[in-house]
Design brief:
- With about 190 residues, this protein is mainly alpha-helical.
- Helix content is about 75%, strand content about 5%.
- It has two domains: about 35 residues; about 150 residues, no CATH class.
- Helix 2 packs parallel to helix 4 and helix 3 packs antiparallel against helix 6.
Length: about 190
Amino acid sequence: MHIDPKLLESIDRVSEQYEMIHNEIERIWRTQMVFTWHWWLDIALAVLPWIVWCIVRDRKRTHDLLYAGLFTMLAAALLDIVGVSQGGWNYNTWLLPYLPEYFPWDLTVMPVGAMLFYQFFPKVSPWIKGAAFGLVGAYAVEPVFAWLGVYEPTGWEHYYGLPVYFAIYMAGHWLYTRRLRSADPC
């Protein structure tokens, strides 16, 4: 099979543009972002929730929690990549200059928050906890991040996030409780 030379030229041209843009992003990050209060907030959001989780987690359920947390991370990161690339929102700060997504949210805040919701109040309906998770994400976290200047919705309304957060929570909850259900003889 032969690849069309025009296609290869187009890919090369876009790759060169991407490299130039990325070099500019690195320069801006190095000269204007790193060590600012936003950057320190990013560090705190990337580290502190995991420290809290390590202290309060149910050690007997660590594997199940991490399994569900990993799903939450992957879903959040993938949807964040799509949202940024499609112009739904952008971020005005980066922990690292390599991807435009907000990885403290995708890899820490959202999965740790979900794992804490799965672990605590086990008698509360997962539907209620999922709705609470969605409401907190859409109507508390997103507006606070926008107010802080970390997050800038450009084609996204906060209420769009409610069903997304709810769906991610419920899928993660299913993964978290799946092994419990399979071990239950009833």
